[in-house]
Design goal:
- The strands form three sheets. Strands 8-7-6-3-9 form a five-stranded antiparallel β-sheet, with no helix packed on it. The protein has a two-stranded parallel sheet with strand order 1-2.
- Helices cover 0% and strands 38% of the residues.
- The N and C termini lie close together (10 Å).
- It has a domain of 61 residues: SH3 Domains (SH3 type barrels).
- This is Bacterial dipeptidyl-peptidase SH3 domain-containing protein.
């Protein structure tokens, strides 16, 4: 994984915040990947923490076992965690993959 570029100095938006596809861009109403600072206005930005999937596992659309499955991830897939709530991690597959939720029991920090 390449280190994310963390913006320095004062950031400003020079127009409206971009509306990005949440399935492919790690941004939601309260949080976004640090690389999106200056493109999207949210209260918080996070630096991703890389994890590996321990076994084949599902990427969910929401933090629930019964939520729609977006994709199946193979064991050893890199999942960049941006937020943890309860027993679920929200993040992105690799650097530019799908965005969703994975059960914490299926992840190991690199």
């Amino acid at each position: 994984m390449t280190e994310p570029t963390i913006p320095t100095g004062q950031l400003t938006l020079s127009g409206p915040s971009e509306k990005l596809d949440a399935a492919h861009w790690p941004v939601r109403g309260d949080l976004a990947h640090i690389r999106l600072a200056g493109r999207c206005f949210v209260p918080h930005y996070a630096v991703p923490v890389p994890h590996d999937t321990l076994q084949d596992t599902a990427l969910h659309a929401a933090a629930r076992q019964d939520a729609d499955v977006i994709a199946q991830l193979a064991a050893g897939t890199v999942f960049n965690v941006l937020d943890i709530a309860g027993q679920w991690a929200w993040g992105q597959v690799g650097e530019d993959g799908l965005v969703g939720y994975v059960a914490l029991t299926q992840l190991e920090k690199k």
